[in-house]
Specification:
With 423 residues, this protein is mainly alpha-helical. It is 42% helix and 6% strand. Strand 1, helix 5 and strand 2 (136-142) form a beta-alpha-beta unit. The chain crosses the membrane at residues 339-358, 364-387.
């Protein structure tokens, strides 16, 4: 729609400016804007280009699906009714484009091939269902303000060009999506679904969340099991959660947590946005569900170690160590000091009570405060000697050094997580 608005403005049509509240164009405005794109396509389709012999055949009929016009009841003028119709159609978008003879790709940038990752067309959440199963692609390239040429190509060749662009920028999630469409046996459903979800969320953010409520509908029809259209439309995150629940036999949703950053402090969400795809992140996915543990017989050579299956539980990481405020009670090394301190405290309180009963008030108060203050001071001193052993902490190499250095600093032997290391 943004490219269509730019095209309409260049042709002299200036639609109403969106209000700060994000008011949508009326259906009449959207249809007026879309007409300019339809006129541009018809003008370009009349001329042959790059092996497009159909352009010379002007005596033909084409059926064009343009969502602003393809309404079940086009005579309706109610915005709520139109929104309901379009919402239903968007839930079937993957089927509509899968059954199309050819798919036209267009943006308002002159000379754009639409396969680079900075193309406006390629950063929409709707791009994935539009092009993932297209058999033939009509690449509309603007040569000047009012001149556009159509360059036909096969859908496979078009997707392979996008793959090359994704590989250059290390966008391996996007690469896996198109690899799955070209050769479904080369990419597992676990990887394909994960890549689709992460890429859809990334594009949702790139579009300022304008289409966030359609996040689930954009993915419907691309996963092994699809949802009924009537079951969608409850919000972007809710629809996505329902799709992942339907496909839990093909995808472990806990893997998504492995690639999500921590939420903002002002956020009420339990997860942040996915980390930008980069080489090496794929190694984080398996640790959410299982990790190798030492077998019962350490000397056994039975092959791979068994796996410890972990439940779907979030593990919070702290950025720094904490002193154990209850070190006097939590550490076995302080058993003797704890017994002596506890006995002294109990004896002092008992002696203070006896003195208080016999009428010696000031000695009772003095002894009571002496033993209690002394006990608290002992707790504070011991708390500086021990570290808290609850929870998980991230120790960066730049600050803490390697494992041997950390062992020397902490004064105890450590083991790498998930590895069988003999003491």
């Amino acid at each position: 729609m943004q490219s269509a608005v730019q095209l309409a403005a260049e042709s002299g049509f200036h639609p109403p400016v969106l209000s700060p509240e994000g008011r949508q164009y009326t259906i009449a405005d959207r249809q007026s804007i879309s007409k300019y794109f339809l006129m541009l396509y018809c003008s370009a389709a009349r001329h042959p280009a790059d092996g497009n012999p159909e352009g010379a055949n002007r005596d033909r009929t084409e059926y064009v699906w343009l969502d602003e016009f393809c309404l079940s009841h086009p005579e309706s003028t109610s915005e709520s009714e139109i929104e309901s119709q379009r919402s239903t159609e968007l839930g079937r978008l993957a089927n509509i484009f899968r059954n199309a003879t050819q798919v036209a790709v267009f943006c308002d940038r002159p000379g754009c091939r639409h396969t680079d990752l900075d193309c406006p067309w390629g950063n929409r959440i709707w791009t994935i269902p539009e092009i993932l199963h297209a058999e033939r692609v009509l690449r509309m390239t603007r040569e000047s303000t009012h001149a556009t040429r159509i360059h036909p190509t096969s859908g496979r060749a078009f997707r392979e060009e996008i793959q090359k662009s994704a590989a250059k920028l290390n966008q391996w999630h996007l690469y896996a999506i198109y690899q799955h469409s070209v050769n479904s046996g080369g990419v597992s459903w676990q990887t394909a679904i994960h890549s689709l979800v992460v890429e859809a969320i990334r594009r949702d953010e790139a579009g300022d969340f304008d289409d966030h409520k359609y996040l689930g509908k954009a993915l419907n029809g691309l996963l092994p099991r699809r949802a009924h259209v009537d079951d969608l439309g409850h919000g972007g995150w809710n629809d996505l959660a329902w799709l992942l629940e339907l496909n839990q036999g093909f995808y472990n949703a806990a893997s998504l947590a492995a690639l999500c950053s921590l939420p903002d402090k002002s956020s009420v969400s339990w997860l942040g946005k996915p980390i930008n795809p980069m080489p090496g992140n794929e190694r984080l996915e398996p640790i959410v569900t299982a990790l190798p543990v030492s077998p019962p017989n350490a000397n056994s050579s039975a092959g791979c170690p068994p796996l410890m299956i972990i439940g779907g539980e979030m593990i919070g990481l702290r950025p720094r160590l904490r002193r154990d405020w209850a070190g006097l009670y939590n550490n076995p090394d302080m058993i003797r000091a704890r017994v002596i301190a506890g006995g002294t405290l109990a004896l002092g309180v008992l002696l203070s009570f006896v003195l208080l009963v016999t009428g010696q008030i000031f000695p009772a108060i003095g002894i009571f405060f002496s033993v209690t203050v002394g006990h608290v001071l002992l707790e504070l001193v011991v708390s500086t000697m021990f570290l808290e052993r609850k929870g998980w902490i991230f120790l960066p190499d730049a600050e803490w050094g390697d494992l041997n250095t950390i062992e020397q600093l902490l004064g105890q032997e450590l083991k790498p997580w998930g590895m069988n290391v003999k003491s």
